[in-house]
Specification:
single chain; alpha+beta; Aminopeptidase; 2 domains; seven-stranded mixed sheet; six-stranded mixed sheet
């Protein structure tokens, strides 16, 4: 049985190197996401040669991430399958891109059943479009943004050690305004957000704040996930202020994604409201993901 263990911040260096070698665009293939969602998903990691091994859940809900890294794919998949057998759980791989799905099928022809997991598809946008908001389809977004920009007292600044406590305070206010305590999914999300903020600089995240008359009314945080994509982990704003979300979206993208082709704004978790909001920005494409279950 594989010796899986808890993820710690000191794992970032070696995991980042493995992720960079694979160059995957999916949100699962980012140390920050594995680390900040660890408690929610009951996740653990291990290493086999130059592969990262990752499992989450327990019992029949146990899942293994399609392993990022370099080396013998058949060997590492067989190792994960043996671990599932020893634990007495179904062998299920998650997070497979179409390319990973093809690699797995070539290595194990007819051995797996594949199912698209729509709720985990990431929304991928063209960076230029998110910065310029150009085109007829995004006219309403530009209108909201322009209305916000009419406010004379707004400013943008980077998240620093000096203002991080204010970001944490705004997160609490956002949670109260959005009734987090009455929504399990929002509570999970805030747990992940708080862990990200508590380890913000160790995770080497980039973050931006918008103030209105000196008070924080929006912030965002993310990082480069692969060779051509910025991933946005957190975006919070005061929804009562027209254009606040459009403003932090545009301002953060313009400062952090101008040299990259795409922005990954992660999945909708199957939430209809979130899906509608993400679709309203007209993604360039959805990063498809599949689950593979051993037949």
């Amino acid at each position: 049985m594989i010796e899986f263990r808890q993820i710690v911040i000191e794992d970032k260096e070696w995991i980042d190197k493995i992720m960079q070698a694979s160059d995957f665009r999916g949100a699962e293939y980012c140390f920050t996401n594995l680390f900040i969602w660890e408690e929610v998903f009951k996740s653990k990691i291990s290493r086999h040669k130059d592969f990262l091994l990752f499992m989450s859940g327990f019992g029949d809900e146990t899942r293994y991430l399609f392993p990022p890294g370099e080396g013998d794919l058949k060997e590492v998949i067989s190792l994960l399958e043996a671990d599932a057998n020893e634990r007495g759980v179904p062998f299920k791989l998650i997070g497979l891109s179409p390319e990973a799905k093809e690699r797995l099928e070539n290595a194990f022809p007819g051995a797996f059943e594949y199912k698209a997991t729509r709720g985990s598809f990431d929304y991928i946008y063209e960076s230029e479009k998110m910065i310029s908001l150009s085109g007829k389809k995004l006219q309403s977004k530009r209108n909201h943004l322009n209305r916000f920009l009419e406010n004379p007292g707004w400013t943008y600044e980077e998240i620093t050690p000096d203002n991080l406590h204010e970001v944490r305070e705004f997160t609490v206010k956002w949670c109260i305004a959005n009734s987090c305590k009455d929504n399990v999914s929002k509570m999970w999300e805030i747990c992940a957000v708080n862990r990200a903020l508590s380890n913000f600089f160790e995770l080497k995240l980039n973050g931006g704040i918008i103030r209105l008359d000196g008070e924080i009314i929006a912030y965002s945080a993310g990082e480069q996930i692969n060779s051509d994509t910025l991933i946005v982990h957190i975006e919070k704003a005061d929804a009562s202020i027209r254009g606040a979300y459009q403003a932090i979206n545009r301002e953060f993208a313009s400062r952090n994604a101008s040299t990259l082709k795409y922005i990954n704004r992660e999945d909708d978790a199957g939430d209809d409201g979130l899906r509608k909001a993400k679709e309203s920005y007209y993604p360039a494409f959805l990063q498809e993901k599949y689950a593979a279950v051993k037949i």
